[in-house]
Design goal:
This protein is α/β, with parallel strands linked by helices and 479 residues long. The chain folds into 2 domains: 256 residues, Aldehyde Dehydrogenase, Chain A, domain 1 (3-Layer(aba) Sandwich), CATH 3.40.605.10; 187 residues, Aldehyde Dehydrogenase, Chain A, domain 2. It contains 15 helices and 18 strands. α9 packs across α10. The structure holds 1,4-dihydronicotinamide adenine dinucleotide and magnesium ion.
């Protein structure tokens, strides 16, 4: 076993204020709800006091966005692009600061916030900046919708902000965005970046608060477009509340992805893919490969290698550059992971974790593997959203596909085989929005992302991601 000296990233690079207001019409203002605190989930230390937006505050933000829409939507695309390119460049310049802040507020390892989240955030702004003056070639018309109300979760706070804000602005919409209550800090730093980029007031408004604030954004009568990423339960509520209002909606909800490993796969690569699929970001990933489907003939060998590999993962301080597994984002999420894992044991699956010291303070859960899992078990059906892998076996490709599709979700899947014909045969039959071939959790702003069934509807990213923010509909064949 290796021992490393700690290599903590300095937090001096970020300046966290004791308290934050709402960002409305280009300025920070007080909220009239009851302020709340955000903590560092790795230490339970309070980071800052955050204003809560009431329905009246949300109304002011929507009014600001409505007013700004007139000039922003009339601006030539090439001019809007300049702002988006500027924002993208400032994100790159301040990426160390943003990465440290993300890891402090969310609990994710700095290695991931620095090397995955931040590069993708900047790439997303660059990508959609490039579309702003080329909308007529995308096939969805060039007319923006109006004011977008956007509600995002805590697992990729800044990345989900980028997925929502970049295409909305590129198409000429204005935005009222609500970050998750446990991770508001990078969205508020992004608000400062909007000021630094001289973005016209009201184009981006950030309202902080919990579910009630989110509901006020979604239900505001002057919001034209709703975009949500989060739980299937809240997604259902939102679908119901906007039904019949004429608001355009995209929902990106849960998942229970299968990672299918055929017997001819390159096993060491597959092991890396499995680890990346479920232990990246503590498994707080909607497209996480939470169900490993392994062909029976190689199951024992693969599990041995996987367990050996898991023994090398380092859990601990998210700001330590050696850390692979950071903190669970909140006490509530930890309780949910524990509850479902206990249910797995009670239902008869076998639980395994590597020897792994757990820090005294903060919220932690060791990497966990369940074998002997049946399709009927809760750990095979429900989204755990934690570092917990459920292993099932199969004998034939047909059985693999059937088991992979036997879920109410349909967001993503992974397939591991050296045979191109088997890869294509399998991918064709998987009911999942994204299928990764001999890789997992790979993202690119040019590639559309989204689900089937209870995983939601609409696509984010790529040319397809523009459709959600444009009012003109394209001729069917060009989609
Ligand atoms: P959540 O769906 O309650 O939270 C997501 C966002 O929605 C937050 O900003 C929250 O404040 C807001 N929200 C809550 N209630 C709302 C309402 N009635 N109207 C409008 N906005 C509302 O998810 P939560 O409780 O944080 O996590 C629960 C489970 O959801 C997780 O364990 C996980 O399984 C799943 N989840 C899935 C995500 C994904 O990326 N698809 C992200 C986060 C959670
Ligand atoms: Mg926090």
């Amino acid at each position: 076993m290796f021992e490393y000296a700690p290599a903590p990233e300095s937090r001096d690079v970020v300046d966290i204020k004791p308290s934050y207001g709402l960002f409305v019409n280009g300025e920070f203002v007080d909220g009239s709800g009851t302020a709340f605190k955000t903590i560092n989930p790795a230490s339970e230390e309070k980071l800052a006091e955050i204003a809560a937006a009431s329905a009246a505050d949300v109304d002011l933000a929507v009014q600001a966005a409505r007013k700004a829409f007139t000039t922003w939507s009339a601006m030539p695309g090439a001019e809007r692009a300049k702002y988006l390119f500027r924002i993208a460049r400032i994100i790159q310049e301040r990426s160390r600061e943003l990465a440290v802040l993300e890891s402090l507020d969310n609990g994710k390892p700095i290695r991931e916030s620095r090397d995955v989240d931040l590069p993708l955030v900047a790439a997303h702004f660059f990508y959609y900046a490039g579309w702003a003056d080329k909308l007529e070639y995308a096939g969805y018309g060039t007319r923006p919708i109006g004011v977008a109300g956007q509600v995002i979760p805590w697992n990729f706070p800044l990345l989900m902000l980028a997925w929502k804000i970049a295409p909305a602005l590129a198409c000429g919409n204005t935005v009222v965005l609500k970050p998750a209550e446990t991770t508001p800090l990078t969205a508020l730093l992004f608000a400062e970046i909007c000021q630094q980029a001289d973005l016209p007031p009201g184009v981006v408004n950030i309202v902080t608060g919990a579910g009630e604030t989110g509901a006020a954004v979604v239900n505001h009568p002057d919001v034209d477009k709703v975009a949500f990423t989060g739980s299937t339960e809240v997604g259902r509520l939102i679908a119901r509340s906007v039904a019949g209002t004429g608001k355009k909606v995209t929902l990106e909800l849960g998942g229970k992805a299968a990672n299918i490993v055929y017997e001819d796969a390159a096993l060491d690569q597959a092991v890396e893919g499995i680890v990346n699929g479920i232990f990246f970001n503590q498994g707080h990933v909607c497209c996480a490969g939470s169900r490993l489907l392994v062909q029976e003939s190689i199951a024992a060998e693969l599990l041995d290698s996987l367990k050996r590999r898991l023994g090398t993962l380092r859990l601990g301080d998210p700001l330590d550059k050696n850390t692979d597994i950071g903190a669970i984002n909140s006490a509530a999420q930890l309780a949910k992971i524990r509850e479902l894992s206990d249910a797995g044991e009670q239902e008869g699956a076998e639980r395994w974790s590597p020897a792994c010291a757990i820090p005294d303070r903060g919220f932690w859960f060791p990497p966990t593997v369940f074998t002997g899992v049946a399709q009927s078990h809760r750990i095979a059906r429900e989204e755990i959203f934690g570092p917990v892998l459920s292993v099932l076996t199969f004998r034939t490709p047909g059985e693999a596909v059937e088991k992979a599709n036997n879920t109410p979700f349909g967001l993503s899947a992974g397939v591991w085989t050296e045979k191109a014909s088997l890869m294509l045969w399998t991918a064709d039959r998987l009911r999942a929005g994204v299928v990764w071939s001999n890789t997992f959790n790979r993202f690119d702003p040019a590639s559309p992302f989204g689900g089937y069934k209870e995983s939601g509807y609409g696509r984010e990213g790529g040319r397809h991601g523009l459709e959600a923010y444009l009012a003109g509909s394209a001729p069917r064949e060009s989609r």
